[in-house]
TrEMBL record:
Protein name, entry field: Ig-like domain-containing protein
UniProt keyword DNA repair present: no
Region (Disordered), start-end ranges: 327-348
Record-linked Gene3D superfamilies: Immunoglobulins
SMART domains cross-referenced by the UniProt entry: IG
Keyword annotations: Membrane, Transmembrane, Transmembrane helix
Superkingdom of origin: Eukaryota
Positions of transmembrane segments: 287-309
Amino acid sequence: MQQPLVRYKTMDSCKLQLMALLAVLLLKTAIGTAATWISIIPQGVCVAPGDHIQLDCTLRAASYNDTRLSFYKGSVLVNNTNHDFPKLCRRRGSRCKWDLTARLTVDPASASDEDVYRCEAVQDGRPYTASATVFVQYRSEFQLPTSRVADLGESVTVLLDRKCDQLEPVSVTRTGKDGVVKVLPYRYGREDDRSAYVDKTYGALEIPNFKCTDAGYYNFTVMARRGFEPVSTSKSMYIGLNASCEGCCPEDATVAPTRKSTANTQAETTAVRGVIEKLGCAENNTAYIVVIVVLVSAIAGCVVMILYYRRKLDLTKRNQTEVNVEANDEADPLKSGPNYTEMTGVSV
């Protein structure tokens, strides 16, 4: 009878430990959700002259009574801000905290409004600051390196340093050494990707496995909008193969000339080159095609002439043979007499 009681007490002890652990986790989670931090959205914005600028600043877990948000343009305080305390309370210890928000609006925007704007607050004696850069212009603003090198098989990522229009799509084209322009696919990355593409998430150029054909000039275009008007901004960079791998690509390898073994072969090569040079395109494949066609036509003409004269000679021999046979028949007295006609029924 005592054994079940022991088991019952042991189960209560396990439950107590689990509940204590759960309480600690919930406490840590509650404290973490009440942590104070500040943010500003967007962190970079480009607006056309005449449009409006709007910046939203949020201080999470702020005091309801004494905490205020302030906007600065450079070092100058901006007063046209609206504050709002939402009703959601974040408990931190025994105190109730709220998310304080403030919005700065400039309408209409002009070139003089272009600057770095800061949102500042002081919470429990600790300062909080967030900043955003405003550009008053039609084009997009981003930075791109002018060039870089890569090794064969290296994974290459080129991420635009965008000051605004962070979520706008990016188009990338590659111009290879042969002058062919290719538009790279714009999609999300996959594990089986082996060719270059533009990642939709970040607008970054991804080359998972750099090859010889990946070398060339890359043109990046950010396709944004200013109101209802589309605006495209482009910049280019060159991505080349590392100099330590000179000659790794087939088109870069130098082929040693082969030595001709006979004088006749050298003479034929010289003659063909002379014909090509006369055509005026020694390095053009069309010249080689013309020479080959001329040679084939000459050989075919010779074959046709030989067959023609051979057939004509056969016909001449056949006619001469028939004439000789007729002449022999006339000269034979047995075949020319009347008895031959009576016996064979053939008149000569």
